[in-house]
């Protein structure tokens, strides 16, 4: 029953999407407002249908209905409730179902909020988003049907991949990623709407700005949560390995970040109009490419054999998107002349141009490294793998340059910077740069990129904080309030600008965390008996005992350590190996992590003797790892602040302030 | 609209699409196995049905052996189950030995699964600690190995197999004897 209901909901969504896409376009061509309205209604109904289908699947997972193929594949009676719920996105079919839901919700919301104003542009945008949706519903109706029938009905299932049920971030990272990935469909839809309708002014850019920032924020959080997850789960103490899955999430983030900056140049100066469309189209295409490359299957199971025809579907879809969107852009490009010019090489807009150049180079490098194994096999017939050394070597210079620009950009005014302005703004950041460089040299940093990272981070941090300080002082003079109220009022007066600087501060803090944790990482490995003590950095760690115990869905072996500060026990560490029932014998390492502002203590149980007589552990001490997560959260905060509407409120706010000043 | 620009753009897209299309024909998980052409790793395993029978690969010299690794939690093993059982029946009188090896699973689960699937026409063996699976470089299940009369691995199949696929490798071995290697 659930099976039929779920499948029907998805099939109905497919039919409605196709209808809506055609109706919207036809409505514009034939000037039939009723058709356009019906297409918008289709977007709303779709959201309901997908919500229903997803709820049915969650219900099936919770009630262990193994007659449904997806439940038989990832469900298990032994898994805890939260794992059953998040199994929704733990494997291919379910993740597409969830993708469909997010897309339907985004489409409906975007259509609802723009219902009054956009005319043909909005109708075309709706058609594009519905067409994209139709592709995902088609996958579910055909090759990736989550509601397939299983007969005979198995008594129990294997549960999701142990790696995916070993940590609560499993509940957090994938939805954030989908919210980010799928969210890029909205600006893409409106960009295409602009190209299709011929309304090539800034309308699409202004309408989608907040949608783009929203998707970008989720994508940023998702990437950070993904790093956190691999750090907490994989047991090697790292958080980024340039794996294709990671690259797939990172590339659209790079192009979207470039777009957030270059979009401002278009709004302010009427430049980069083709470029902005190209960036947002690329961002969307990269999300689809990423999904294609990883096919969700890489993550889904011990075995990702024979994903069947789904890859072919994706390929055809991507080819269609690539050719149609870029050809449309190329065809319109003659109509998209810049209305402004670059006045000076030393200006905000030229800093943005350089920023875009670097982000584009970054994206191409990552894309090349990711696709290179494929290229090598196609051209030379050899299997190669491209590892971290390539990516690090190629991208670290770009990262350093970008970090420097994070500091330079904010201090440059639009159009042209005067010599005096520059001198004044450069003073404090340059001092910070020299100070940071000296401190890093004294503390033993010797690698060129390490030194650059700390020096530029110091420079950029002070440059951005200086903007806050200058802004707040100007407000103080203007309104006569205290420094702190003036500082906070900046987010009301110019939310976009100061939200952006907040995000900068987050990026800089994360960069510091990345640089310090890679530069000063300490690692020791030892085989120990209970009673033995291992010392790493300031930590003294006696092994108390090794124990094995059963939990409902897994068998756990843990090595229990105390953390000693002199003679005092200040905490405990319990690195484990988890053995999941139903998934066979391979253990899942579960590191024990203690995070402090100063550093993280990270322990992994590598092996143990069956009789509990000894355990082999690795102990890693990494400084400032938690700064990466804190930085990520600050970036998200900046994005949220930047989303507040600007201009209208500025005027109203200013009027209100004038009134209060006069009243006082 | 500028037609020339449109055409140029399309021309630029084609190589990328071609490259990705090529990628589709490749299985990134398929790690080239060094086994085909080499001697099959020896094993001595106990039957899953509790009869305490053991099967020793060395004692099967002179016969074609089909070794299929499977598990009750493996969905694709369901797809190939009927084919394997049928092939085992077809080739029994021609002296071909079929064995299943239970991978990362409990005997009780395996037996229940077989009952559920309507029986298995050949014996399955237990592989405690997955030692044999490791010897065979197993990447997951299902995987099927075809071993010739001289104890060499002729073929390793990753993913579900079929009667016709099995026949295409077993038949030449039966008619012409041990043969040259083949990998896919």
Walkthrough of the structure:
The complex is a heterodimer of chains A (664) and B (184). With 664 residues, chain A is an alpha+beta fold. Chain A folds into four domains: 1-160, Up-down Bundle (Four Helix Bundle (Hemerythrin (Met), subunit A)); 167-337, Four Helix Bundle (Hemerythrin (Met), subunit A) (Up-down Bundle), CATH 1.20.120; 388-494 and 646-663, no CATH class; 522-626, Sandwich (Tick-borne Encephalitis virus Glycoprotein, domain 1). In chain A, 65% of the residues lie in helices and 11% in strands. Chain A is built from 22 helices and ten strands. In chain A, strands 2, 3, 4, 5, 6 and 7 form a six-stranded antiparallel β-sheet that branches. In chain A, strands 1-10-9-8 form a four-stranded antiparallel β-sheet, covered by helices on one side. The longest helix of chain A is centred in the middle third of the chain and has 33 residues, at 348-380. The radius of gyration of chain A is 27 Å and the shape is globular. Chain B has 184 residues and is α/β, with parallel strands linked by helices. Chain B has one domain (33-176): 3-Layer(aba) Sandwich (Glutaredoxin). In chain B, a hairpin with a 5-residue loop joins β6 (143-147) and β7. Chain A binds chain B through residues 69, 72-73, 152, 154-155, 157-158, 289, 292-293, 298, 301-306, 311-312, 315, 318-319, 322-323, 326-327, 329-334, 371, 374-375, 377-378, 383, 582-586, and chain B through 1-3, 5-6, 8-10, 12-13, 16-17, 19-24, 26-29, 32, 71, 73-76, 103-105, 112, 116-117, 129-130, 139-141, 158-160.
Helices and strands in order, then pairings?
The complex is a heterodimer of chains A (about 675) and B (about 180).
Chain A: H1 2-29, H2 33-62, H3 69-74, H4 81-86, H5 92-113, H6 120-141, H7 162-165, H8 173-183, H9 185-197, H10 203-234, H11 244-269, H12 273-294, H13 297-300, H14 310-332, H15 348-380, H16 388-411, H17 419-442, H18 448-479, H19 483-493, H20 495-519, E1 522-528, E2 533-536, E3 539-551, E4 554-565, E5 568-573, E6 576-580, E7 588-590, E8 592-595, E9 599-608, E10 615-623, H21 625-642, H22 647-663
Antiparallel strand pairs in A: 1-10, 2-3, 3-4, 4-5, 4-6, 6-7, 8-9, 9-10
Helix pairs in contact in A: 1-2, 1-6, 2-5, 2-6, 5-6, 5-8, 6-9, 8-10, 9-10, 9-12, 10-11, 10-21, 11-12, 11-15, 12-14, 15-16, 16-18, 17-18, 18-19, 18-20, 19-20, 20-21
Chain B: H1 3-24, E1 44-47, E2 54-56, E3 65-70, H2 75-92, E4 97-102, H3 107-116, E5 123-126, H4 131-135, E6 143-147, E7 153-158, H5 163-176
């Amino acid at each position: 029953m659930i099976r039929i209901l779920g499948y029907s909901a998805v099939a109905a969504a497919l039919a409605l999407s196709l209808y809506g896409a055609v109706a919207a376009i036809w409505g514009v061509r034939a000037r039939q407002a009723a058709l356009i309205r019906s297409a918008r209604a289709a977007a709303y109904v779709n959201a309901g249908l997908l919500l229903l289908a997803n709820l049915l699947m969650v219900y099936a997972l919770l009630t262990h209905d193994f007659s449904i193929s997806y439940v038989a594949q990832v469900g298990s009676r032994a898994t805890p409730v939260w794992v059953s719920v998040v199994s929704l996105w733990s494997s291919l079919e379910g993740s597409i179902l969830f993708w469909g839901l997010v897309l339907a919700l985004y489409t409906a919301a975007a259509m609802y909020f723009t219902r009054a104003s956009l005319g043909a542009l909005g109708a075309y945008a709706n058609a594009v988003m519905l067409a994209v949706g139709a592709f995902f519903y088609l996958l579910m109706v055909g090759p990736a049907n989550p509601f397939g029938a299983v007969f005979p009905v198995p008594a129990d299932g294997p549960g999701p991949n142990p790696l995916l049920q070993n940590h609560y971030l499993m509940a957090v990272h994938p939805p954030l990623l989908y919210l980010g990935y799928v969210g890029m469909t909205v600006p893409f839809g409106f960009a295409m709407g602009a190209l299709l309708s011929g309304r090539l002014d800034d309308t699409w850019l202004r309408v989608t700005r907040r949608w783009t920032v929203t998707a970008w924020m989720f994508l940023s959080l998702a990437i950070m949560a993904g790093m956190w997850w691999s750090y907490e789960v994989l047991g090697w103490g790292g958080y980024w390995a340039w794996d294709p899955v990671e690259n797939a999430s990172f590339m659209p983030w790079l192009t979207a970040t470039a777009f957030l900056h270059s979009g401002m140049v278009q709004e302010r100066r009427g430049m980069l109009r083709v470029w902005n469309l190209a960036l947002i189209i690329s961002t969307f295409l990269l999300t689809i490419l990423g999904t294609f490359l990883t096919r969700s299957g890489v993550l889904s199971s011990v075995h990702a054999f024979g994903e069947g025809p789904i890859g072919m579907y994706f390929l055809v879809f991507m080819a269609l998107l690539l050719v149609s969107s870029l050809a449309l852009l190329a065809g319109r490009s003659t109509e998209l002349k810049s209305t402004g010019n670059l006045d000076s090489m030393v200006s905000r807009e030229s800093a943005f141009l350089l920023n875009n150049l670097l982000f584009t180079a970054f994206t191409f490098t990552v894309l090349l490294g990711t696709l290179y194994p494929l290229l090598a096999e196609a051209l030379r017939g050899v299997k190669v793998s491209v590892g971290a050394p390539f990516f690090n070597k190629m991208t670290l210079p770009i990262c350093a340059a970008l970090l420097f620009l994070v500091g330079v950009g904010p201090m440059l005014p639009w159009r042209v910077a005067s010599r005096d302005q520059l001198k004044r703004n450069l003073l404090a950041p340059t001092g910070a740069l020299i100070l940071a460089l000296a401190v890093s040299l004294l503390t033993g940093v010797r690698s060129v990129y390490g030194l650059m990272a700390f020096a530029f981070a110091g420079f950029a941090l002070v440059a951005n904080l200086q903007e806050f300080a200058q802004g707040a002082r100007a407000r103080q003079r203007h309104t006569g309030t205290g420094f702190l109220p003036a500082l906070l009022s900046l987010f009301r007066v110019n939310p976009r600008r100061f939200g952006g600087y907040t995000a900068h501060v987050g990026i800089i803090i994360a960069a510091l965390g990345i640089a310090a944790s890679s530069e000063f990482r300490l690692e020791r490995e030892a085989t120990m008996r209970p009673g033995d003590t291992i010392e790493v950095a300031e930590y003294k760690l006696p092994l108390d005992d090794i124990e094995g115990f059963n939990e409902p869905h897994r068998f756990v072996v843990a090595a229990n350590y105390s953390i000693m500060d002199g003679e005092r026990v200040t905490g405990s560490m319990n690195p484990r190996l988890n053995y999941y029932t139903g998934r066979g014998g391979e253990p899942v390492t579960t590191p024990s992590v203690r995070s402090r502002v100063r550093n993280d203590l990270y322990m992994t149980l590598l092996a143990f003797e069956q009789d509990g007589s000894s355990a082999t552990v690795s102990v890693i001490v990494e400084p400032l790892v938690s700064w990466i997560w804190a930085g990520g959260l600050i970036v998200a905060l900046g994005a949220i602040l930047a989303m507040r509407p600007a201009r209208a409120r500025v005027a109203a706010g200013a009027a209100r302030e004038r009134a209060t000043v006069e009243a006082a | 609209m500028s037609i020339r620009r449109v055409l140029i753009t399309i021309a630029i897209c084609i190589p990328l699409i071609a490259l990705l299309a090529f990628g589709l024909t490749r299985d990134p998980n398929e790690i080239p196995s060094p086994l085909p052409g080499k001697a099959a790793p020896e094993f001595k395993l106990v039957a899953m049905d509790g009869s305490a029978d053991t099967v020793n690969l060395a004692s099967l010299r002179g016969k074609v052996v089909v070794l299929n690794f499977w598990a009750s939690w493996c969905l694709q093993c369901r797809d190939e189950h009927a084919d394997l059982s049928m092939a085992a029946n077809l080739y029994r009188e021609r002296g071909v030995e079929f064995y299943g090896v239970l991978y990362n699973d409990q005997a009780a689960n395996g037996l229940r699964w077989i009952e559920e699937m309507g029986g298995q026409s050949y014996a399955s063996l237990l592989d405690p600690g997955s030692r044999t699976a490791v010897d065979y470089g197993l990447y997951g299940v299902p995987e099927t190995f075809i071993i010739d009369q001289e104890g060499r691995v002729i073929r390793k199949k990753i993913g579900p197999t079929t009667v016709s696929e099995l026949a295409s490798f077993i038949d030449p071995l039966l008619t012409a004897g041990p043969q040259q290697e083949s990998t896919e």
